[in-house]
Every structure is written in structure tokens, then in C-alpha cells.
Amino acid sequence: MNQPRIAIVGAGISGIGMGVALQRAGFTDFTLYEKAADYGGTWRDNTYPGLVCDVPSRYYQFTFAMNPEWTQLYSTGPEIQGYLAGVARGHGLDRRTEFGTEVIGADFRDEGWLVTTSTGAVERFDFVIFATGFLHHPNRPDIAGLDDFAGPVMHSARWDHEVDLTGKRVGVIGTGSTGTQLVSALAGQVPKVVMFQRTPQWILPTVNKPYRALTKRLYRRVPALSRLAYQVNRGFFAAFSQGLVHQGRIRSLIQWVVARNLRSVEDPELRRKLTPDYQAMCKRLVVSDRFYTAVQRPDVELVTDGIDKVRPDGVVTADGVLHELDILVLATGFDSHAYMRPMPVTGAGGRTLNQEWANGPRAFEGVMLPDFPNLFMLVGPHSPFANHPLTAVAEAQSSRIVGWLERWQAGEFATVAPTRAATDRYNARMRAAAPGTVWTTGCQSWYLGKDGLPELWPWSPSRYEKLIRRTPDSVDYQLDPRVMSRK
Ligand code: NAP
């Protein structure tokens, strides 16, 4: 069989999933490019104290690599990173991965892609698959004087483990999933934590208990238990996602639960400061078993006045108060709309990705772009990634990509791209559905694009999975059949 040459860019969750899917389907001529020195993507980059995934481990895993060894309901960052690296190595991806090699450009030429890497090499591939993720480029806030701070300033995704926290006053800017986890972990470990809150968050309570040795033994002996637990979680998340995309009982129930959780904050003034003025889940819901306990500690201060500037000795808020600090942590999120940018990507006829996305990232069914033949994305724009495991999304999308590669191998086409008309129709349907989602109910979040509409799949994840796992309808694509002339 004719083997297509394939480049995968990024060895995080989706790149690993894609690599394994290719191998399992018998595609052997692929290179997995990874700019860093290890697998894991966001799980490699994020090593801040308190990092725990808020999707249960038994669901946040690949169905082809169920792990009976999870140590707790919600795994820590290092445990997930170890799992991902183990899956990659266990499936022999090491021999296809080029670590320390950043893809710095991709150009479509003569029915294939010229991929340029940081080593200076230019390689030709039949297909390029971007698995670059979206929580990738740290967002460094534009705060006056930030560079003048005398102590260490760390973004949460670039934690410097050389920095000694002992006896230090730590400021944390940001109240998302990261900021709340950080404050929960630092509270009691350092003499003072100051949390700078621009917008309060609703917090969904949970419990995180370690699994007993007996449980692990059972899961080891009876693999069906892992599959069962996966399905149970899937059902739970399917119900939860109804609340995201429909006004109704689930949304009301979650609102009731988070409001009740907030009542555990005893001081009325602190409770007032922590009360959001938007619906639960409008921003990405924070899940925590300890944030409210942490924020009520006497050594944790919640500051709600806006940040005016940073001075060498601390942060000055709009009320003129100087909050003296030794270390400043930026839990300020990511440029989640960049995807593979700023890398220059040029498609057919010289069309650039920046031109294609001038009005924001758009794709066809989350994985392809018109005028960019033989280019695929994993977890691309409008994929269902809100409070949903990316392992599941990546697996479903990989199966679609493998389907196209098999059709290429069967000689059906040399290049494939969705038509512009199909892409426009698809995006118009999603935009029409967006107002029904909770993300448009009146808050700012990283889910929203420039036009104020969410760059998320506006229906249930299972509907997306059904869509992406079906055989694509050829009328939506431009298939160029010149394969025989080249091969
Ligand atoms: P985020 O949700 O984007 O939160 C960023 C925080 O920084 C927000 O509170 C934001 O305030 C604040 N901020 C940004 N710029 C600021 C400025 N100039 N001044 C003051 N505050 C500023 O980022 P994140 O917490 O890193 O989370 C990103 C995503 O990563 C999550 O939504 C989630 O998908 C994922 N994540 C998941 C887990 C997990 O447990 N699975 C853990 C961590 C992260 P505003 O709200 O006012 O904008």
C-alpha cells in the first residue's frame, strides 16, 4: 500500500492520540514534531502547585489505553503527564518523534506540504496535522510596571521550581481554574497569599479521594471496570453538557448547587466579593473541593479593587493601597484563539492562515479549512472542549482523519479540502445556535471570539462525536483526483 507522508505538529494529548491512531491503522510514515523535550503539551507545561484535572481520571484517558493505576478520582498534573508520556512511549512513538524541533512554517505546494523546522530542515509531506492545542501561549497581562517587580514573576504555565516559596508573600493574579487551584495549594504553605480578583467565579463543589489499593487491584484484574467507569462518566458529562447548551433544569440545578456552595463562605462581605453577577458556566466552571476553605483563611486576602500598577515591592490597586509581595504569579490564562499561530501557514493559492482567520478562527467540523488542502487540525475551532475531556475529542477527530488517509491510500484523491460554501454554511449554523448556550448569557471569557460569540461547539459533545465519526459527505469537499499523475 502507498504510504502517505504525514507530519503531526505537537505531542500533547491530541498529537499522541493521533500518532497512536495512525499506527493502529497501519500508517507508518509519519513524524511527530515536538518543540519541547517531552510529551504532554499543556500537562508538561503546567507544573504549578495544586494542579489537578477537574475531569475524573477514569474519563480523562484514551479508550485504547485505560489505566487501572489512577491514584485518585481527579488526578494531579504530574500523574496525567506520566500517563500521557507512558501511552506515547508504550506505543512506540519515540521512534517517530523529533523532540526539540519546532515547526516554524508550513506551505502547501504541488499537492503536499513543505514543513520548515527550527533545525533549518524543510521536509515534504502529503498531509500535515496540527495538534498544537489552544491552552498553549501564556497570556501575559498588560499591567504597568510588571517588569519592574523586584521578585520573581511567573506565569502559572511556566512555574519556576527554583523559586523558593519559604517565608514569601505570594500574589496571584487571576481567578480561573488555575488561580483558584494555586491559591488553594499555597494557602497555609506561605505566610501570605494575596489573590487579585477581577471577576469572581462560581465554584462547583466536589470531593477528591485517593483510590484504595484494593480498588486498583480490582481495576487491574477486571479491565471491563475501566470501560464501565468511562461510560458512567460519559453519561454524567453528557447530562452536564445539556446545561451548557440549553436553558433548562440542568442549568438551574447547577446554578442552585454553586449558589449553595457559596453560602459556605461565612463572612458576608467576603461572600459578597465572591459572588458573580453572571450565570454559572457562562465562564468555564471552576470545580474545587477546597477553594472556599482556602480563601477564608486569615493568611489569604482577596483583593477586588482593580490593579493600577506593579511596583518593585508589590501591587498597587485602584484604591491606592500597596500590597507588598515577594513573588507574583500570573494565573492569567492563555491566548486561546491562536491555535497554531503565530506560525506562518500558507495554503493553496498563497492564502495565509492569518487571512483565513482575519475574523477569528473558523474551521469545517473543527478539523479542516477551505483552501488548505490536506491540512487537519485536532481540537480546532468550535470543537467541544468546555469542561469536556480532550482525550475523547481527539480520539473522535483522529478517526475522521484516518478515514481521509485511507481514502487517499485507496487513490480516491490527491488533495482534499472542504468547500468554502460548506464551511460557511457550517459556521453560520453554529453562530445561529450560539445564543442558546450559556456562554452568551453575559460574561467575558476566553470562550468568546472577537464578535462576542463562543468559539465552541454549541450542541452536545455526543452530537459532535456522531458528526465527526460519520463518513464525510463528498459534496462538502473539493477532492482533487490527480493522485495517479504524481505517485
Ligand atoms: P482563565 O480561565 O482564562 O482565567 C484567567 C484569569 O486571569 C481570569 O480570572 C481573568 O480575569 C484574569 N486576568 C486576565 N488578565 C488579567 C488582568 N490584566 N488583570 C487582572 N486579571 C486578569 O485561565 P486559567 O485559569 O489558566 O484557565 C484556562 C483554562 O485552562 C481553563 O478554563 C480550563 O479549560 C483549563 N484548566 C483546566 C484545569 C483543570 O482542572 N482541568 C486547571 C487549570 C486550567 P477575568 O475573568 O476578569 O477575565
Key descriptive features of the protein:
single chain, 487 residues, alpha/beta, 5-stranded parallel beta sheet, 14 helices, 21 strands, 17% strand, globular, disordered C terminus, binds NADP nicotinamide-adenine-dinucleotide phosphate
Can you walk through the features of this model?
The chain is of the alpha/beta class and 487 residues long. It contains 14 helices and 21 strands. It has helices spanning 13-24, 42-45, 77-90, 177-186, 213-221, 223-245, 249-262, 268-273, 291-295, 353-356, 390-409, 420-433, 461-469, 483-486, and strands at residues 6-9, 30-34, 97-99, 103-109, 112-117, 122-125, 127-130, 153-155, 169-173, 192-196, 203-205, 286-288, 300-303, 307-311, 314-317, 322-324, 327-330, 345-346, 375-377, 415-418, 477-480. The strands form 6 sheets. The chain has a 5-stranded parallel sheet with strand order 3-2-1-7-19, covered by helices on one side. Helix 11 (390-409) runs parallel beside helix 13. It starts with 5 loop residues before the first strand and ends with a helix. The model is unreliable at 483-487 (pLDDT under 50). Bound molecules: NADP nicotinamide-adenine-dinucleotide phosphate. NADP nicotinamide-adenine-dinucleotide phosphate (NAP) is lined by residues 52-54, 135, 141, 143, 156, 173-179, 181, 198-199, 284, 307, 331-333, 444, 446.
- How many individual β-strands? 21
Structural class: alpha/beta
Small-molecule components bound: NADP nicotinamide-adenine-dinucleotide phosphate
Residues in helix, %: 25-40%
Instruction: Work out the radius of gyration.
Output: 23 Å
Question: What average pLDDT do the residues reach?
Answer: 96
Distance between the termini: 12 Å
Poorly predicted parts: 483-487
Q: For the largest beta sheet, what order do the strands appear in spatially?
A: 3-2-1-7-19
